[in-house]
C-alpha cells in the first residue's frame, strides 16, 4: 500500500481512470503478498538512499541529477554508488547522478532519439508506457512535459530501480509504476499516447497485445510501437523454435510489413513505419553495471546471424492512431 497511495489518489481524481479502482488495488494487494525474496533487500537499499534537498534535474536531453556533489560529501557519494550497484543489473539508461554514471547495458538514449522526432509532442499528454523496464523512458517523457506517466512492468527489480531513481531525482509529478503484467490492467480508453517498446515479441498472443494497447488509448490517441522484426514481406513471421539471441520467452518476430497488417487487423489507422535499424554491439553491451553476457555473445563470429542461426536483431518503430 505504501507504494501506491499517491497512485490511488491520482486515479481517484482522474475520472477516466476510475475504472481501474475496482480491480487494480486487489491485484496490487496480491502483488504485495507474493513479492520475491530479493525484494526485501532491495527495499532496504532504497531506504538508505539519501533524500537530496533541492535537487537539480535534467530530463529533456538526459536523465541526470546535476547538483549531487554540492548536496552530499565524497564519502556519501561512494556509499550511494555502492548501494546503486547492489540493484544491478542495470539494463536501461544511462543515468547520471552527479559524478555517478550508471553505464547501462543499453544506450536507451539512442532509441529515444530515434523515436522522439516522429511522435506527437508529449507536452500535456496522458501517457502509458507498457513494459517500462526501470522507467528510463518515463523520465524522458517527463522531460518532454507529459502531464502524467504510468509505467507497467512486472519486474520487481526494475520497480526497485525506478523507486531508487525517483527518490534521488526527488520528483513528485504524476509519474507512477504499476508492477503488474499489462494483460491484467483493465482497458481505460483514455491515454493520449501509449508506448509498447520491446514487449511484443515476448507476448504469446501479439494480436491480443495490440488490441489491449488500442483499448487503453482514447479515440485519436497515438500508439508508439517498437519491436524486433525480420526481413521479409507481408507474409513473413519468424517463430523461433527455442531461444532467439539467447532470449527465452520469445514468440513472434514479424517483418515490418506483416506488422502493419496486424495493426490494420486491430483497426489502427494512420500506420507509419518511422524507423528501422539494426541493433549494434555499441548500443547493447556488457558494462560495469550489467556484467552478464550481452549482444556480442549472442551473435555468430561474423555478426550476421544470431547464435541460433536467425537474422540478427533489427528493430522497427511504428506510430499509429486509434480511430
Ligand atoms: N506481460 C508484461 N507486461 C508488461 N511488461 C512486461 C511483460 N512481460 C515482460 N515485460 C517487460 O517488458 C520489458 C521488455 S525490455 C523493454 C524495456 C523498455 N520498454 C525498452 O524499450 O527498453 C526488452 C528489451 O530489452 O527491449 C521488460 O522490462 C519486461 O519486464
UniProtKB/TrEMBL annotation:
Keyword Transferase found: yes
Keyword Membrane: no
Residues at which carboxy-S-adenosyl-L-methionine binds: 92, 106, 111, 131, 153-155, 197, 201, 315
GO terms for biological process, alphabetical: tRNA wobble uridine modification
InterPro entries named among the record's database cross-references: CmoB, Mo5U34_MeTrfas-like, SAM-dependent_MTases_sf
Keywords from the UniProt entry: Transferase, tRNA processing
EC number: 2.5.1.-
GO molecular function, one term: methyltransferase activity
Catalytic reactions of this protein: carboxy-S-adenosyl-L-methionine + 5-hydroxyuridine(34) in tRNA = 5-carboxymethoxyuridine(34) in tRNA + S-adenosyl-L-homocysteine + H(+)
Family that this chain belongs to: Belongs to the class I-like SAM-binding methyltransferase superfamily. CmoB family.
Assembly and binders: Homotetramer.
Record's function text: Catalyzes carboxymethyl transfer from carboxy-S-adenosyl-L-methionine (Cx-SAM) to 5-hydroxyuridine (ho5U) to form 5-carboxymethoxyuridine (cmo5U) at position 34 in tRNAs.
Name of the protein in question: tRNA U34 carboxymethyltransferase
Organism: Paraphotobacterium marinum
Gene: cmoB
Amino acid at each position: 500500500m505504501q507504494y501506491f497511495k499517491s497512485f490511488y489518489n491520482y486515479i481517484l481524481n482522474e475520472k477516466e481512470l476510475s475504472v481501474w479502482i475496482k480491480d487494480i488495488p486487489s491485484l496490487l494487494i496480491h502483488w504485495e503478498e507474493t513479492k520475491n525474496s530479493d525484494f526485501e533487500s532491495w527495499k532496504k537499499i532504497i531506504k538508505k538512499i539519501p533524500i537530496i534537498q533541492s535537487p537539480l534535474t535534467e530530463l529533456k536531453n538526459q536523465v541526470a541529477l546535476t547538483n549531487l556533489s554540492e548536496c552530499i560529501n565524497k564519502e556519501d557519494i561512494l556509499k550511494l554508488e555502492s548501494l546503486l550497484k547492489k540493484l544491478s543489473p542495470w539494463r536501461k539508461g544511462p543515468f547520471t547522478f552527479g559524478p555517478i554514471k550508471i553505464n547501462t547495458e543499453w544506450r536507451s538514449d539512442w532509441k529515444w532519439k530515434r523515436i522522439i522526432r516522429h511522435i506527437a509532442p508529449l507536452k500535456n499528454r496522458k501517457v502509458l508506457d507498457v513494459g517500462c523496464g526501470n522507467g528510463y523512458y518515463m523520465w524522458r517523457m517527463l522531460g518532454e512535459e507529459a502531464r502524467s506517466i504510468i509505467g507497467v512492468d512486472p519486474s520487481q527489480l526494475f520497480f526497485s530501480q525506478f523507486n531508487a531513481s525517483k527518490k534521488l531525482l526527488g520528483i513528485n509529478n504524476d509519474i507512477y509504476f504499476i508492477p503488474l503484467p499489462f494483460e491484467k490492467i483493465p482497458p481505460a480508453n483514455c491515454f493520449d499516447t501509449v508506448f509498447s517498446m520491446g514487449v511484443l515479441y515476448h507476448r504469446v498472443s501479439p494480436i491480443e497485445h495490440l488490441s489491449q494497447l488500442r483499448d487503453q488509448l482514447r479515440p485519436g490517441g497515438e500508439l508508439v510501437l517498437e519491436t524486433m522484426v525480420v526481413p521479409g514481406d507481408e507474409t513473413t513471421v519468424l517463430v523461433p523454435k527455442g531461444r532467439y539471441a539467447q532470449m527465452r520467452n520469445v514468440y513472434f518476430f514479424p517483418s515490418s510489413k506483416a506488422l502493419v497488417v496486424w495493426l490494420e487487423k486491430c483497426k489502427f489507422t494512420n500506420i507509419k513505419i518511422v524507423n528501422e535499424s539494426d541493433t549494434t554491439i555499441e548500443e547493447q553491451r556488457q558494462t560495469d553495471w550489467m556484467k552478464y553476457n550481452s549482444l556480442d555473445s549472442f551473435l555468430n563470429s561474423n555478426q550476421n546471424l544470431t547464435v541460433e542461426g536467425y537474422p540478427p536483431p533489427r528493430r522497427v518503430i511504428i506510430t499509429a492512431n486509434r480511430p
